[in-house]
Amino acid sequence: MNKLAITLILAIPVLSIVFSTGGCKKDDSPTVTEYLITIDSIQHADTITEGDGLNIKFYGVAGTTTCEDFGRFDVNFEQSVIDIKTIGIKTDNGNCTPEIKYLNGSTLSISNIPVGSITIRVQQPSGNPLESAVVVKKKG
Question: Where are the beta strands (DSSP E) in 1-140?
Answer without folding.
Answer: 31-36, 41-43, 47-49, 54-59, 61-65, 68-78, 81-92, 98-102, 106-110, 116-122, 130-137
